[in-house]
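Any chance you could type out some protein's one-letter sequence along with its backbone structure tokens so I can compare the two?
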Amino acid sequence: MTIPHSLARAARNAVETSALLQDPAALRARNRPQLRRYDVSSLLPNGDIAETRHIAPALPLFESAFCAFSRGSMVETEYGPVAIEDLLPGDNIVIQDGSLLPLVWKGSTMIVPGRPDPKGRVHYLTRIMADSFGMQRPMSYVLAGPSARILNTPAHLRSLSGGQQILTPVEEFVDGMNVIETAPPTPVQLFHICLPRHAVIRISGLEFETYHPGINAARTISHAMRSVYLNLFAHIDSLSDFGPQVAPRAGDGQVDALSA
């Protein structure tokens, strides 16, 4: 006698869920978000530096604030290139027009690029070889994280940019020769920085953006989670305090913001 499909499916579901019924904690764990440790250095209003450690969700909005530049990335400062891990809040950073702005926030986290997270995401890094974008751009290779954006417009996005230079995710430039995707199997420390306003800085001669959550950030996070996110940034009180973006920005193959 053939068992009806509906009964077979019910029996299979009973077997699959019996363990969960015996252990309700296992059911709750399925919906529990993955957590990640985030380390933050902030410039306080009195000039002091606050070092804090946070345990927060490994959501894309959170991770993008910490996963732009690897250790050893040389940031142009008033005293010359300085490795990003050696920067301190209050250090003056050279921005695109040659003026200086103080570093007000630096964040870092550890990821294992080659290990998929519980949702199956792999956090690829991008290795940019010397002179990939022209003479001394960059001056030496740069290993960028998944949230890094370069002020440059790839050919396949020029029809969308209206002739403007846009801030483009580094993976859009992967060509397998000069710009290479990589996923090391060991932990990698990644960083990002904030200045008093969104800006373009130079790392090994190549123009990258400082951190900005994007104009659509409020739509990607719940109100309750927003307070957890804002707690990572001592220099702001709301998402609007990040200010306008310095240039149009590309994301998921589309320009998602206009320059102020």
User: Anything to note?
Assistant: The first strand starts at residue 35 and ends at 43. The radius of gyration is 21 Å. Helices lie at 5-22, 24-30, 60-64, 158-161, 223-230. Confidence is low (pLDDT under 50) at residues 1-29, 256-260.
